[in-house]
Design brief:
The structure is a homodimer. By secondary structure, chain A is α+β, with helices and mostly antiparallel strands. Chain A contains 19 helices and 28 strands. Chain A has three domains: 3-201, Threonyl-tRNA Synthetase, Chain A, domain 2 (2-Layer Sandwich), CATH 3.30.980; 213-497, Bira Bifunctional Protein, Domain 2 (BirA Bifunctional Protein, domain 2, 2-Layer Sandwich); 510-601, Anticodon-binding domain (Rossmann fold). The longest helix of chain A is centred in the N-terminal third of the chain and has 24 residues, at 14-37.
C-alpha cells in the first residue's frame, strides 16, 4: 500500500505531510488495539486517506475454530478507542527496519495478505521495510510515521463497512474500519461537524426524500431510474446547457451509442479503456460495443465530408450517453454509475485558434457554473494536468507537441489569472488537460470534468482540413465538457443545494394549500392559471390541517406555498410563503406570476 | 413464397385480388422471358408485392463454365420487356396441376432453391402444385393466376438490385428484378409518376442534399449520425412533443438503456424479441442487455414505491433509446435502423379510466399530427389490431380480457367517428392495439406507431395500486407513442415535406445575402439581431453573385432569404424572398422578426 502512497506524498505540503503521518500512525495504533482486543482477527491492509485512514481486518479465521466469523462492530468502538488512547499515552516509538525478504516472510507467515504484498515487493525488486510500534507490534510498512505515538493528536473511529480484498467481488469480504486523526481536538470536532453536514446533504438520502431517483434490483446495479422530479431537474439543466452552447457557436449533433469495436481500436482508446468497456456484442458480420466515449463518433462525423479552414473552429457538441462498467464496490449513488450522459464536445481548430478556443471554453464553463451559484476559487479551481515524457507506455510519444500543448494551457490559465495548480502525470494519453476541480461538501477536491488539448487523435484518425493555400492540414481537437456528466452534476447539485433547488430547477415550484375544502374551487383556478403560465405547480387538496400541508410542502422543499383561506378568496388575493419560512403576505396572483416568472427566466439562485 | 402470400390474399378486395393475380402472372412471364434470353440463369423465387412483383435469379451458374457470373442489367430491360410482350400477346393459358413430391423433385432437380422449397412443403405436409404457362414454362407455384397471359394488362420492369437469399448476408447474392403491372396503361403511368415523385422525395437523397444525417462505415450499419442540421430538427420535434406531453399530464422520466436480461424474461418479452435483441453482455456477477423496449423499465419505476388510486392515471413518458438488431438487408435509411429513440409512454389506469385515457391518447396523437400538417383520413387512418383466440402460442391466454379490451378499443374508435378498419391477428402478444397507419409518399400504408391495451404485463409484473377500500388492485397499462420513433418520424417528415420544412423545423430559417462586400457590415448587424431573437440564421459572405447565392440558399431549402443591397442599406430596410420564389419586398427588420417569430412560435406549416 505504502508504495502507492509514497508517490502521493511528494505532492503534499509540509503541514499536509505531518497530518498524513499522524493518520498513518493512527492506523498502526488501530491495528495494534484491535489485535489486542480480538486476538483471532487477521490484519490485512490499510492506508492513510485524504481525510483519515482505514484498515481492513479478516475475521474469518475465527470461524475455522467452529465459531462464527469474527466481526468487529461499531459498538466495539469505545473500547477500541480506549485501547488506542492507552497506546498513544504510552508514547511508543515508531522504528523502521530494513529486513531480508526471507526474514520478512518468516515474520508474516500464515498471513496471505502480507505474503501477497511481499511477493509484489520482491517482483519490483524493492527493499522490505517494517515498522515497529514500541516492542510489541510490527507491520510491513514503507512509512513514514511520526516519531512516537504521543504525537498523534486527536483520534476518532468513524464507521465500519464490508470491503472486498482489492475491491473485487470475487475475493473475500473483509471488515474495514474507518477513522481519522487531527492535530487538535478542535480541528477534529470541526471535521466531524462537516461529516455530519455531508450526511445531511448526501444526495442518496435527499434523492430518496425528495423522490428524485431510485435504483431497481431488477434493472441492475449502478443504473439509476429518474422519477419525473429528477428528470425535470435534468431536463432544465440539459436545455439550459444545450441552448447556451448553441448560442456560443456549438453545433449540437447526435451520434449512436453503439459502434464497431474497431472504431475504438483505431482511436487507440481500446487498450486504455477496455477494462471498463462492456463486452463486445457479436452479431452476424459485425462486432459492436457500447461506447465509452464520444470522440471517435464525432471524428467519424467530421470525416463525413471534406472540411475547409473556413469552417473552423467547428464544434460538435452532444449530450452523449456513455457506458463504463464500474466495479460494484465503486458505485456511489449518482456519482459513480454504469451508464451516464456527458455534456460533451469536440472543437476542431487550427493550431493558431487554439488559445482563443480554450479561453472561450473556460468562459462558457465559468458562465454555466455561475448560473448554478458556483464561483472559481470558492467552489472550484483548475488543475493543469501534465504528461510525463519518460512514460512512453502511458502517453502518446511526441515531445514537442506535449511541450507546446502544456505551455499553451499554462499561458491561458496565467493570462486569465485563473486559480490553478499543476499536477504531473495526470494528463490524458493523447495530450495535456485542464481539470475542473470541484470542492464537495467536505471541502474535498474532485475532478468534475476536463478540457483536453489533443494533437494525437487527429493523427490516428487522419483528420484534415483544406487550408487557405488549398493544402491538407491537421486540426487540433479540444475535448471538453461544459457541465460534466449529468448524473454526477445532479448528485453534486443535490448536495450543494441540500435539496433546496433554485426555483428554475425545482421539480415543483409552487404548492397551493387551501385552508379548508371551501377554497378548493378557487385553488383549482389558481392552479390552472399557474400551469398555463408554465409554472410547475401542485395542489394539496387533502383534508389535512394547514400546518400539516405546510410541513409536507417544506419537507419536499417546494420554494413557494400559496395559502388560500376565506380572507384571501374574498380579497381576490393569494398569501405566499417560502420554504425558508418567510411570509411574503398577500398579493395579486398576477404579481406573483410576474415575480416567479422573472425568477425562473433569470435562473436566479435565490428565491 | 405463395404459402405466405395466400394468407394475405384473404384480406384483399376483389379488385385488389385481380391486380394481385395479374402481377403474380407477370412475374411468371418475366421469369419465362429471362430464361429464354439468358438460358444459363437459374430461377430462384419471387412474389407479387403490394405494388408489383419481383423475381430473384441466380446467374452464378454461368461462371462454372469458366466465364463471369451472369448478370442481367437494366440495359437488358427493353429486350426482356419485348420478350414479355410477345408472351402476353400469345395469350398462353395458366394451368394448375397437383403433382407428387417425387415427381416435383425430378422436375426441379439441380435447382437448390426449388429443392429447399419442396423440403418445406413436404415438412408442412402440403400438396405440391405447379403452374404451367402455355406448354413451355413451368414453375412451382400455389397460384392463383389470371386465366391466360393476355389478361395481364400493362407491364413495366422497374429496377434491378442484389438480394441475399432469404435476406441473409451469409447466403448467396442473387439478382432481383423488380417490375409492376396495372390493368391499364393510364394506371401504370400514374403509378410511375408517383414512383418518380417518391424518388425525388426519398429521405436518403434529401438527407444527403440538405446535409441532415450520414452513415459511417467505421461506426457501423444502420446507425445514423445526425449533423447539426438533422439534430436541430430532432431537437425541435423532441421539445415540442415533450412539452405537449407534460402539458397533457404526462410525467417525463429517464430510465437506463441497459438492464439485466432477467428483466425481459420476467416481462415475457424475451422469447418474442430475442431474435432482434443484441446479445447479452456478461460482466462479473450480472448479465446485461440493451433494451428493446421501455415497458419493463417503467414498470420497475412504478414498483419503486406503493401506488394509490389517487395517483392514477399515472403516465410515465420517456424519449427512450431502444435497440433492435435488424438484418442488414432490411436497413433502410432512417426508416429501419439498429438503434432508435421512441417517444414512449406507459399510462397506468384503473379499468374504469381506460376509455377516457385512450381518448386522451388519440386526442394528443391527432393534435401532434395536426401540427405537422397530417390529418386523419387524408394522411393516416387507424387500424384496430385484434388477437386470435385460437393462437395460444402467440397470444397471452385470457379470452375474457381480450374480448373486453377489443370491444373497448372498438367503442372508442366508433364513438369518436375515427377512420379505422379492423385486422385480425395483428395484436401485441399482451393485448389488442390501435395502429396509426400513415400513408407514405406512394400512398402505401405503414404502421407508424401504436396504442396498446395491456392486461397481461401488469399480471406478470404483479403491478398493483391501493384502491379506495384499501385493497390491492391491478391497473391496466396503455402503451402508446405520440409521434413514433424519432428516426422514422424524421425520415417520414423529410419525404412528406420534400425537404421544405416548416420554419420552426428548418435547420436554417433565414439566410442573409449581401449583394456586394459593401453591405457585409450591415449584414452582420442583421445577423446578430436575428440570432439574438432566437432565429437560426446564416450569412453568405462569399464573393459570389446574388444569383448564385439565391440558388444555393434555395438548394438548401432555406425558407427566407434577406437580400441586402445599397438601396436597402440606405433605406434601413431589408428585402425578403421566400424559397418558393415569392418576393415579399422591402420591410423593416423588426417587422420581419415579428412575422417570423409568430410563424415559429405558432409552428405554422406554411411560410
Amino acid at each position: 500500500m505504502s508504495g502507492i502512497q509514497n508517490e502521493k506524498l511528494d505532492k503534499l505540503s509540509e503541514k499536509e505531510l505531518v497530518l498524513w503521518k499522524m493518520r498513518h500512525s493512527a492506523e498502526h495504533v488501530l491495528t495494534m488495539a484491535v489485535l489486542k482486543l480480538f486476538p483471532k482477527i487477521k490484519m490485512a491492509m490499510g492506508p492513510a486517506t485524504d481525510d483519515g485512514f482505514y484498515f481492513d481486518f479478516d475475521g474469518s479465521l475465527a470461524s475455522t475454530k467452529g465459531g462464527q466469523a469474527l466481526q468487529v462492530r461499531e459498538e466495539d468502538f469505545p473500547r477500541i478507542e480506549k485501547e488506542m488512547a492507552k497506546i498513544i499515552k504510552a508514547n511508543l516509538k515508531f522504528t523502521k527496519e530494513e529486513v531480508e525478504i526471507n526474514e520478512a516472510r518468516k515474520m508474516f507467515e500464515g498471513n496471505e495478505y502480507k505474503e501477497e504484498w511481499l511477493d509484489e515487493i520482491e517482483e519490483r525488486g524493492e527493499k522490505v521495510t517494517i515498522y515497529r510500534t514500541g516492542e510489541e507490534f510490527v507491520d510491513l510498512c514503507a512509512g513514514p510515521h511520526v516519531e512516537s505515538t504521543g504525537e498523534i493528536g486527536a483520534v476518532k473511529l468513524l464507521s465500519i463497512a464490508g470491503a472486498y480484498w482489492h475491491g473485487d467481488e470475487k475475493n473475500k469480504m473483509l471488515t474495514r474500519i474507518y477513522g481519522t486523526a487531527f492535530a487538535t481536538q478542535k480541528e477534529l470536532s470541526e471535521y466531524l461537524e462537516r461529516v455530519e453536514e455531508a450526511k445531511r446533504r448526501d444526495h442518496r438520502k435527499i434523492g430518496k426524500e425528495l423522490n428524485l431517483f431510485t435504483f431497481s434490483e431488477m434493472v441492475g446495479k449502478g443504473l439509476p431510474l429518474f422519477t419525473e422530479h429528477g428528470a425535470t431537474i435534468w431536463r432544465e439543466i440539459e436545455r439550459f446547457v444545450v441552448d447556451e452552447e448553441i448560442a456560443s457557436g456549438y453545433r449540437h449533433v447526435r451520434t449512436p451509442n453503439i459502434a464497431k469495436t474497431d472504431l475504438y481500436r483505431t482511436s487507440g482508446h481500446y487498450p486504455y479503456y477496455k477494462d471498463t468497456m462492456y463486452p463486445a456484442m457479436k452479431v452476424d458480420e459485425e462486432e459492436l460495443i457500447l461506447r465509452p466515449m464520444t470522440c471517435p463518433h464525432h471524428f467519424a462525423l467530421y470525416q463525413s465530408q471534406p472540411r475547409s479552414y473556413r469552417e473552423l473552429p467547428l464544434r460538435f457538441a452532444e449530450m452523449a450517453s456513455l457506458y463504463r462498467y464500474e466495479k460494484s464496490g465503486e458505485l456511489t449513488g449518482l456519482l459513480r454509475v454504469r451508464e451516464f450522459v456527458l455534456a460533451d464536445s469536440h472543437n476542431f481548430v487550427r493550431k493558431d485558434q487554439a488559445e482563443d478556443e480554450i479561453n472561450m471554453v473556460l468562459n462558457l464553463i465559468e458562465k454555466v457554473a455561475r448560473v448554478f451559484g458556483l464561483l472559481p476559487e470558492v467552489n472550484y479551481i483548475y488543475r493543469l494536468s501534465l504528461g510525463d515524457r519518460s512514460n512512453k507506455k502511458k502517453y502518446y510519444e511526441a515531445p514537442e507537441e506535449w511541450e507546446e500543448g502544456e505551455e499553451l494551457l499554462r499561458k491561458v490559465l496565467k493570462k486569465r489569472k485563473a486559480p490553478y495548480y499543476e499536477a504531473l502525470d495526470e494528463a490524458a494519453f493523447y495530450g495535456p488537460k485542464i481539470d475542473i476541480q470541484m470542492k464537495n461538501v467536505l471541502g474535498k477536491e474532485e475532478t468534475a470534468f476536463t478540457v483536453q488539448y489533443d494533437f494525437c487523435l487527429p493523427t490516428r484518425f487522419n483528420l484534415t482540413y483544406i487550408n487557405e493555400k488549398g493544402e491538407e492540414e491537421q486540426p487540433i481537437v479540444i475535448h471538453r465538457s461544459s457541465v460534466g456528466a449529468m448524473e454526477r452534476t445532479l448528485g453534486f447539485l443535490i448536495e450543494f443545494y441540500a435539496g433546496n433547488f433554485p426555483v428554475w430547477l425545482s421539480p415543483v415550484q409552487v404548492k397551493i394549500l387551501p385552508i379548508t375544502d371551501k377554497q378548493i374551487h378557487e385553488a383549482e383556478n389558481v392552479y390552472q392559471e399557474l400551469r398555463e403560465n408554465g409554472v410547475r405547480v401542485e395542489l394539496d387538496d387533502r383534508s389535512e390541517t394547514l400546518g400539516a400541508k405546510i410541513r409536507d410542502a417544506q419537507i419536499m422543499k417546494v420554494p413557494y406555498m400559496i395559502i388560500l383561506g376565506q380572507r384571501e378568496v374574498e380579497a381576490k388575493k393569494i398569501a405566499v410563503r417560502t420554504r425558508e419560512e418567510e411570509d411574503l403576505g398577500q398579493m395579486d396572483l398576477s404579481d406573483f406570476i410576474k415575480k416567479i416568472g422573472e425568477n425562473i427566466s433569470d435562473r436566479k439562485t435565490k428565491l
